[in-house]
Amino acid sequence: MRVARGAHAVRVLGIETSCDETSASVIEGAGDRVALRSLVILSQDAHQVFGGVVPEIASRIHLTSIVPVVERALADARLQAAELDAVAVTYAPGLVGALLVGVSYAKALAFAVERPLVPVHHLEAHLFATALEHPDAVPPFTALLVSGGHTMILDVAAWGEYDVLGVTRDDAAGEAFDKVAKLLGLPYPGGRHVEALAALGDPARRQFTRPMLRSNQQPDDADYFDVSFSGIKTAVRQTVERTGAMRADGEQLRADIARGFQDAVVETLVEKTLRALDARGRTRIVLGGGVACNRALASAMLRRASEAGATVYVPSPRLATDNAAMIARAGLFHLERGHTAGLDLAAYARRSLPGRAGGMTGTGKAGRVTSSG
Ligand code: KG4
Ligand code: ZN
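Above: the input record for the complex with KG4. Below: its predicted structure, written as tokens.
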């Protein structure tokens, strides 16, 4: 989308360093008419050998990458820092040492160019990501946020008005994919490898119980919208051990297990999202987070939503996973409302989603670092 730089159009630089992506982006626009001018994402490969994100290493890589990543984002946008109208940065939730790199850099830059500093909540930003590609992916909508660190089903009545209907009781959806990948001998992060293996599997051979899905569940039940994935991960582990799936000739068995696991996760996420859609009478579903890259999830959601007369908006992989464009986009929203911060802005591992009453959300991937099984 091309947006003319009219009287109210502003340019926002976004910075994201909450986990293992160092990212910077420039967007330009006003209200819901926003154009992406640049997006640079540096994914830290170093963590692959550890099978999970190592916080100390993440911080160090952010430190060495942040300057060239921001400079590249500005160069791609053909802008000087002085031509920016604001600097938006993820300040929560995530790995504190990683967040601090982005927050410190953003403060220094905002101070140097004398522009407002806009603090952005990482999970709120995921809700804005899809709208960068799909102009109709704006509230009111039902959102499914599924990544390595968080799993939430939300009702979004308007930007800034978030009602968290369901969360995971234990593992995040992406975390479950990563743990199952490990059990099946696949590399980290494992989601896309599990998806590829599942495509070769037979859906009828290895089926797993759908967690927290009972046909007699009622909207008032505590687990009506919530999900849980640790039981299914244990079931996968037991099946792998019992069947000897890790033997050299176990390839088909492993594919069948991957398929059974993915089918159970997808069906659970789709059902819970449709429940939220129905409960609030919405007609749009917006997906976000790394697990939204899963094509089986997207197509199952599209199928069920079209039966319900709803539209599904799926971000491209670049905007589904952690990126600074969504930070800049959410930053623009807050800038327009005067929600800026002083140079005393701090970083927080946990922080409530703005615009909802009470509760804490998300710790990024901090809880599943290194040797977590
Ligand atoms: O949003 P994201 O980049 O980072 C955060 O966790 O915040 O999400 C990464 C997660 C990982 O757990 C990864 O395995 C998962 O998204 N993922 C997938 C797929 N691609 C990435 N899970 C299932 N299927 C995929 N195709
Ligand atoms: Zn994220």
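Notes for the reader.
The mean pLDDT is 93.
Residues 129 and 319 are 6 Å apart (CA to CA).
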